[in-house]
Amino acid sequence: MELKGFFSERPVFNRFLIVIGVVLLCSGLFTFLGAWITSSLYGVDMLTDPGILNELNDPDVVASLKILQLLSTGLGMFLIPAFIIAILFSKKPFNYLQLLGKGDVLIGVLVVFLMLVSVPFINVLITMNEGLVLPESLAGLENWMKESEASAMALTNAFLDMRTGTDLFVNLFIMALIPAVGEELMFRGILQGMFRELTGNVHAAVILTAVIFSAFHMQFYGFVPRMLLGLVFGYLLVWTGNMWWPILGHFINNGAAVIMMWFASREELPFDQDQIGTGDGEWKLAMVSAILLIMVMALIRRRASLSGAMNDGQGTTL
């Protein structure tokens, strides 16, 4: 039986169910694999110990959590399912995932510049989002959101506690490279294309995917800036037809945060990267950042149009 494209003719709703099934199966298998590895290497029980997140000062626990995140989420939930789904849905899976798009060095440079100049504006959005106050009737929900956010922040800080160059490279791999490739393949490569097919509207597909992308991270006080990044990555794919550009943007965003924390931990960073654009009198910097973000996105769109790469993510010229 030929697996390539076996489900290509199924209705889009059926294929959504297949996506869910593949993701659940792979993430479950890799979660158990990660738990077995961490138990064997460190004697840490990742599945049945409810207090494991209260032991983030234990290096073995942190190492175990990194392994589990890499296997259960990075590989098991995103990267491997994306390729399996592409194989099941297309006879040309690499084309389906748009991994064979035209390369353009100038677009790559613009993507890197885009991610760097957008930092002040993103920081302002984070600050505004953190100021969200829900109505008193939703106090229970707000408390849960704050607890979830605090837990996620504690885990992130534990991961970013880097003492050696090896720690830096491990974090760049686990927290930047694998998420950039896996999440973009799943969200932009799989879901965005399916939403495009379902809605018949490329913009609706980009927006829906960005909302789900942000919601998945379960960090509610960073929902708006993360959704904006999802929109940026979505349109990068739409305009260029090349999955490697949103992957590059995603990697720069995550990787820059890891590298900045590395320098900050060594007291070699003369500023707080999370506060750029949010200080007193820095509103002009944030405005310039927002304007540059729009201008660079327009340049990328123009460049892609001139090179004939612009498409709707499914091979149809806009």
* Estimated structural class: mainly alpha
* Contiguous uncertain segments of 5+ residues: 312-318
User: What percentage of residues falls in helices of 4 or more residues?
Assistant: over 70%
> Can you count the beta strands?
0
Describe this structure in words.
The protein has 318 residues and is mostly helical. Helix 1 packs antiparallel against helix 2, helix 1 runs antiparallel to helix 7 and helix 9 packs parallel to helix 11. The longest helix has 35 residues. It is globular, with a radius of gyration of 20 Å.
Search tags:
single chain, 318 residues, mainly alpha, globular, disordered C terminus
Question: Which SSEs are present, and which pair or pack?
Answer:
Blueprint: H1 12-42, H2 59-89, H3 93-96, H4 105-117, H5 119-130, H6 139-159, H7 165-199, H8 202-216, H9 223-240, H10 244-265, H11 283-306
Quick synopsis:
The protein has helices spanning 12-42, 59-89, 93-96, 105-117, 119-130, 139-159, 165-199, 202-216, 223-240, 244-265, 283-306. By secondary structure, it is an all-alpha fold.
